[in-house]
Design brief:
Blueprint lengths: L3 H22 L3 H5 L2 E9 L2 E4 L1 H14 L1 E13 L2 E11 L5 E12 L5 E13 L8
Parallel strand pairs: 1-6
Antiparallel strand pairs: 1-2, 3-4, 4-5, 5-6
């Protein structure tokens, strides 16, 4: 059974995951990049992104292709300065096709609370507009 400190820590970690999702849903790459260290490391699918400048470029390009983007993150587990989350997001491509992406992310934070590492494994599923869950 979890004691009150563990429950409090779990709540704080869950809250952090929700804040990240809220920030990502803003689709503001400059704002989002400030949550990461200057030299943050990312793996997103088969792409490797390093540092805030590349994060801004990556997200700007991503949201030119992934239209009507909506994200939901779910806290999965944590220890020390690491958090694991599951997520799903939906988007539309330039031809009007809808997709739902599912995946897992592993995050590592520095001593200032900025995300230093983000590793994401993501799979897409084509869906019909009527199958959307995130509106």
């Amino acid at each position: 059974m979890m004691d009150k400190i563990q429950q409090s820590n779990q709540w704080a970690v869950w809250h952090e995951a929700q804040e990240v999702a809220f920030c990502r849903n803003s689709q503001d790459p400059e704002k989002i990049a400030k949550a990461y260290t200057i030299d943050s490391e990312w793996r997103n699918r088969d792409q490797f992104v390093n540092g805030r400048e590349e994060i801004v470029k990556f997200l700007s390009e991503k949201w030119k292709k992934e239209l009507n983007y909506k994200l939901k993150k779910e806290y999965w587990a944590h220890t020390d300065n690491r958090i694991a989350v599951r997520f799903k997001y939906e988007f539309q491509d330039s031809e009007g096709n809808w997709f739902r992406a599912y995946g897992n992310e592993n995050w590592e934070f520095d001593e200032n609370g900025l995300m230093a590492k983000r590793y994401a494994s993501i799979n897409n599923l084509a869906i019909n507009e009527g199958e959307r869950r995130l509106t």
